[in-house]
Amino acid sequence: MNPFEVLEISPGASSEEVRAAYHRLAKQWHPDRFPGAEKTEAENRFRMLAEAFNGLKDQERRAEIEKRLPETGGKAQTKPQSPDAASRPLVERTADDWFQEAKEAFEAKDYSRALGLVHYSLRLDGNKADAYVLLGHLLEVTGGDQRALIKAIEHAIRLNPKDVDSMLHLADVFQALGMQARAARARESARQIAPNHKAFRQTLPKAPPPTSARGGLMDQFSALIGRLFKRG
Predict the structure, then answer these.
(1) CA nearest 186: which of 212, 161, 223, 220?
(2) Residue 191 forms part of a structural domain
(3) Could you tell me which of 125, 111, 113 has the C-alpha nearest to residue 57?
(4) What is the pLDDT of residues 157-186, one digit of tens each?
(5) Beta strand residue intervals within the chain, DSSP E
(6) Treating both helix axes as pointing N-terminal to C-terminal, what angle do 111-124 and 95-107 enclose, rounded to 10 degrees?
(7) Cα 217 to Cα 11: distance, rounded to the nearest angstrom
(8) In a domain, 216, yes or no
(9) Distance between the two ends of the chain, CA-based, in angstroms?
(10) Which domain holds residue 83?
């Protein structure tokens, strides 16, 4: 796969041009914009765009890629490829790789890109509880479908039954939707697992500071002196 062709840019493109091309095409091919069979094609395109961008945004990796592309007339050109070569990744990437990149995009508040990346991570490995946790947060911050949000959090809990934070997150979602009974059940499940969780700590009223024995004796002595002087 030639990352320059995937991103529709020339080999001499600057870092800013690489990033701009990626964001433009990633938005165009985001899987959430396509229904049915077209969604699969969009997911493949989105994956290729992410791989191409990852290969070119790092200068060392970009230099290695450019060395692999034969030079003709001072410009990098692609070799003749087999029919499936265009979809072959530059580097074989795992679900964890996609998930880590999704986390970075989420932290950078690039939510649209993070959604596409975490979806692809889950396609490769549908048993990643932390990926479902991230998906839940992304759906919430982007105002995504509430059913999909609940489903993502429930998947995370199913894969990690001791995930108290996800249980509390689910309780908050149910509470916001007016599902009081389900919210109470989710919160109670969390309480049973971690009764000392910060969400369940109650602020106890502070007891008044005890009067020291020394202070009490001084008060009594002062009162006694006062009575003696009054008699005199």
Answers:
(1) 161
(2) yes
(3) 113
(4) 999 999 999 999 999 999 999 999 999 999
(5) 71-72, 75-76
(6) 160
(7) 89
(8) no
(9) 109
(10) 3-87
Report if residue 145 sits inside a domain.
Answer: yes
Residues 9-36 have pLDDT tens digits of 888 888 888 888 888 888 888 887 888 7
What is the rounded CA–CA span in Å between residue 39 and residue 37? Answer: 5
Where do runs of H (alpha helix) occur along 7-79?
A: 15-28, 36-57, 59-68
Q: What is the pLDDT of residue 206?
A: 56
| Residues 75 and 106: beta-carbon distance below 8 Å | no
Cα 187 to Cα 165: distance, rounded to the nearest angstrom: 10
Instruction: Give CA angle at 84 (48, 113), nearest 5°.
Output: 10
CB atoms closer than 10 angstroms to residue 4: 25
Q: In terms of pTM, does the model score above 0.70?
A: no
Gap between the Cα atoms of 207 and 202, Å rounded: 15
Q: Domain for residue 29, yes or no?
A: yes
- With vertex at residue 168, the alpha carbon angle to CA 163 and CA 173, rounded to the nearest 5 degrees, is 125
- Reported as type and span, the H/E element at residue 223 is helix 213-231
On whether both 119 and 30 belong to a single domain, the answer is no
